[in-house]
Amino acid sequence: MPIPSRKKNEDTPKFTSRCMSDPKMVSEYPDEKQRYAVCMSKTKSSLLEQVCDIIEENSLGNTEALTPYNFIIPEDSDYVDFEEDIEIVEVGAVAAYIYKNSHTDELFYFSSKGSHCVENVLLEFVSDAAEYQGKKVNLGKPFRTPDGPKKFSVYVKNDKGNVVKVNFGDPNMKIKKSNPERRRSFRARHNCDNPGPRWKARYWSCKAW
């Protein structure tokens, strides 16, 4: 059975959506992950497109270790319901030590005091930062972050059992999950049938869509 071909000037999201919903493709490849792989094989015509896919994946957001500088206790009105199981935990003491690259004045934060190097540059110690201890957070309950770095954040435990903060969602774009084509395209591009672990931004971006 011929696989749908990409039309002239048809962008990757539009082609992927069309390919994924093609009746013959659905019949031939009922497993969505397999169908997605087959459809994507028709779009990987250049290394540039593969690089763009990686950039798009990274643009979904990031995972941060907790420091006093990114720790937020949201207001009740900031929370959004993603229908996830929620656990309330107490965050232990976290101290940050501030260091500076004396050549660029860029600041870095470390959980331990000592000699730290970045890109073969020995950093200069600046000061201790404040600690927080005994604060309670909701794990698995996303909240809006008007001041960034992304549209939403959520506290979860990573694979090592540490509480981390996951930032996700483009603050400059609206989620259009009510548009079936847009939703299907987004979920196909990011393989949302297998969104990965909860401590990664892709998991939560897929939940939002």
Describe the structure.
With 209 residues, this protein is α+β, with helices and mostly antiparallel strands. The chain folds into 3 domains: 12-59, no CATH class; 61-94 and 134-208, no CATH class; 95-130. 27% of the residues lie in helices and 22% in strands. The protein contains 6 helices and 11 strands. The strands form 4 sheets. Strands 1-11-10-9 form a 4-stranded antiparallel β-sheet. The chain has a 3-stranded antiparallel β-sheet with strand order 4-3-7, with no helix packed on it. Strand 9 (143-144) and strand 10 form a beta hairpin. Helix 1 (12-21) packs across helix 3 and helix 1 packs across helix 5. The radius of gyration is 21 Å and the shape is elongated. It starts with 11 loop residues before the first helix and ends with a helix. 22% of the residues are buried. The model has no long low-confidence stretch (mean pLDDT 82).
